[in-house]
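Form P-L/3: holo structure prediction, ligand 2-oxoglutaric acid.
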Amino acid sequence: MPPVFERPFPALTPAQRYHFEVFGYVVVPGVLSHDECETIKSALQQLKRDLRARPKGYQPSPSEPYFLIDKPHHVFMATIREADPVIAAYAAHPRLVGMAEEVIGGEARMVELNAHINSRNPDDKFEANPKFDLHLGMDVPYGTHTKNGLFHCSFVKTLTNLTELGPDDGGTVVIAGSHKLDIPHDDMIACAYADRSLIHQVIAPAGSTLLFAETLMHATGRIKSDRERAIIVCGYGTRQFPYWDGGDLSPEFKAQIPEHLQTLFYGKAHWTRAPKYRTLVEPVDPRKFTLGDAWQPKKAKAAKAKKKK
Ligand SMILES: O=C(O)CCC(=O)C(=O)O
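OUTPUT (holo model):
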């Protein structure tokens, strides 16, 4: 039997799904363990050093990571899928893929993979009512639908904080409930600034995942503390979507993708989308998954088998 990509369905408890339904996001604690957070964090720190060490004027190939932002207090690293096996393992984490599929309402593929490491902006004035760079990645009429009374969005993100986020640690902010609203963005933003209770901020232990629909207005929060924040973010789309973050995968990386993860990494050019739907009360699939459960690169598998002999 060829290996199958085991992932949970439903991946959220009814209460988590209800929270998502109402606010457009839910924070799920304990998705990554302490050790998994540390492993990914050190891979990201290494990547930051590697990108900074590139010679001046270096032109990354389409499959190589690069800085979208490179400031002393904030790096935003894009197209990081090939930078370290633990990063690919994050994208393929069965719980994360399961959560994305539940929101999509069908089979998921990875569409972007990036990370932020940021700390307090020394120029920040810390006014009482700060403004944020609120944005979204999908419009409501085109990208959403309902089934069994539940909301679905064909572009979803799983953003996991690798460092603890207290109230002053710059957790992601969102305009709660904006995921369903097809009204001008500036009007929604004005309402949220007029009533700040509409702006929710992620406050969560390390290893928690913010699952959100890309029709939800969101932004990086403002850091007031002395703590550095590190997050890893995977965007998933319905499997017919193209990959839009960087170019084609390198031949070396392609050769490592196991059969059962082909759709996750390549999508599927076909008219069907493998629909998957739950009802609100359907209980969560409680199986435990860890970082390396699905990402078993072909070469590593071959090496493991050789060792066993
Ligand atoms: O830095 C953050 O918390 C938000 C990241 C973000 O805006 C995104 O992934 O689209």
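COMMENT: Residues 7 and 247 are 27 Å apart (CA to CA).
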